[in-house]
Design goal:
The protein has 69 residues and is mostly helical. Helix content is 55%, strand content 0%.
Length: 69
């Protein structure tokens, strides 16, 4: 059984340069979507997923599917 209940999250992740740029550009919506995508990929074998999951993730994140692409 794979461990899909844990994702190591650095408490200072938002201080990462790339994430700071993401937050500056997209706000906390972008940061939240980033973590929803990471959580979803963590549950997949090899951290890869079909694009078919995007619709469900977009609904959960309350964004348009195109925002995730």
């Amino acid at each position: 059984m794979k461990n899909d209940k844990f994702l190591k999250h650095d408490a200072s992740a938002s201080n990462d340069e790339k994430l700071m740029i993401l937050i500056d550009k997209e706000g906390m919506k972008g940061y939240g979507v980033y973590w929803i995508l990471l959580e979803a990929l963590r549950k997949q074998e090899g951290f890869r997923s079909s694009l078919a999951i995007l619709r469900s993730l977009a609904i959960r994140a309350r964004v348009r599917k195109e925002y995730l692409i």
